[in-house]
Amino acid sequence: MKRSQQIELNPNNKQSTRMAQHAGYARVAFNFALSSFKVGLDNDEWRTYIDIKREFNAVKRDKFHWCSELSQNASKNAIHNLGDAVTRWKKGQNNFPVYKKRSDRISYQADNGAGTVEVYKKRIKLPKIGWVRMREALKWTGKISRVVVSKRNNRWFVSILVHCDSNNYKHQPPLFDEKQPIGIDVGINTLATCSNGDTYENPRPLKRYERKLARANRSLSRKVLGSQNWQKSKKRLGNVHYRIACIREDAHHQATTKIVRKASAIGIETLNISGLLKNRKLAKALSDSALSRFLTMLKYKADRRGIPITEADHFFASSKTCSSCGEKKKDLTLSDRQYHCDACGADIDRDLNAAINLCPA
Ligand SMILES: [Zn+2]
Asked: Options 3.30.420, 1.10.390, 1.10.357, 2.60.120; which CATH number does 180-358 get?
């Protein structure tokens, strides 16, 4: 069983410089591999990553003399990644890889299961860098099979993939007696309405941070492109975006964990998000609440606990059907917040009605 966790790092200045150097090394190696591969293509020859690695090792001491100070894992894994990327391109699974730029999101793979990385409590030992403090401990125990270090909004993160022997939570989640099947209606106004009556509010961080975001955007647009002040403004804008992403993610984690702790089975509706996004009025509110991200989270957490999930397709009229008698209403609009049934006289909250319809039997 594979489990991954992303943890923020607390490096000192020396360590963050070192990590940036490694990321730079990975970029240089990736670009070297890509250009070598392209030369191969021009000569009707398919160069594997092993060929390229050999070529790289032969010239690296002359071309990149500084690399002897760094962990060779960074370049090795970058070339390996290029190999994977061109294989996927050949199969038609993705576009042809492009050169990495300095301004791209920076990252490097510190380990590929060779056991060069150690984790002890809230510390991680990275090759050629040493023990770096982590903000939290690793939740999983088992063999570490991949470690990727990356930088986002001036913060360093490490993403650790662990091969677990079993579903080994170090802390067992609390057990609930009354586990029951739960249907969930996800929406814009309320993030999730459950058939057992629970509701989870959507924090809608964009709405709250809209003015801050607008101000940061305006300030950036007034600066000279690339200047010192522009850099500062860009950092500030990045901070607002980061804040929004964190608030949203936190709300999603809390709601999904609470739901899976209570559910014995879960019923949801497949969202036709791309279709909904064409409706411009809805688009902003929808992308804000990032519903598809929420559903992905719900699915993997349910999967982890062995809770079955049934997905009703979007032709199933979960909102228009009466949850007590099964009568279908034709003239239900998005603004009708209350469902009133003409056949049996039921009067029920619209989202709750939909959630009950989605509840697996
Ligand atoms: Zn009815």
From this structure: 3.30.420
